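Appendix B. Worked example

We walk through a single record from start to finish. Start with the input: the chain for AQP10 protein, Thalassarche chlororhynchos, length 245.
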Amino acid sequence: MGTTSFLKRAQALVRIRNKLARECLAELLAVFVLIVSGARGSAQMVTSFGTKGDIFTTYLAGALGIMVSVYTAVGVSGAHLNPAFSLAMCLLEQFPWWKFPIFVTVQISGAFIASGAVYALYYDAIQHYSNGTLTVSGPRETASIFATYPADYLSLSNGFLDQVIGTALLIMGILAMLDTRNKGVPKGLEPVAVALLVLSIELSMGSNCGCAINPARDFGPRLFTYVAGWGAEVFRWVEERGRGG
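Next comes the structure step. The output line below is what the pipeline stores for this chain.
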């Protein structure tokens, strides 16, 4: 009885009663899972010189991470996970505008924290692979573990178009799944369908600039690499490569 009473009191103390706080925590945890899953797959591929993973395993890890992320938050916050999706919900009047900047901040924060976790987990591997030098370009670059970067041939305009189309396909697909007038996805399997949608986009549109299709997924980790030792080149290099080389 004493133990049960103690547990009930402890649960009451940690229970979050504020709805917005619960939503923000759900988004933070879900984005954390999303970034950790994708970045771990990339870190394993890069630091093992491709012997323990390839681009497909990286995309698959990211897609499965999205599935778990949606299951984590969908019942609490709707599992936006993406500022672009939050914006779309606002434009469709299905999400209040005043929450938009709050969700975006939380999503970016979750991505930033997750990048730190991946860096800590793969710290020794990254240091060994890079010979202790954190770079954005060159044969031993490691910045692409965390954020996406354009291919050498890609112009800024083509890169912008690539991300707009990829993100539009993502949002259109999710909205189609949620539309009650459609046949829809069997209840409970929506996260699986979203994961497959993301995987299909990544496999068909990943070569130009990594297929971030999520501003938080790119900016949060890029900001982390900036403060963690890769420096301002994580932003400048995008501009230089974006000019078409």
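Two observations about the output. The CA atoms of residues 88 and 220 lie 20 Å apart. The first helix runs from residue 2 to 14.
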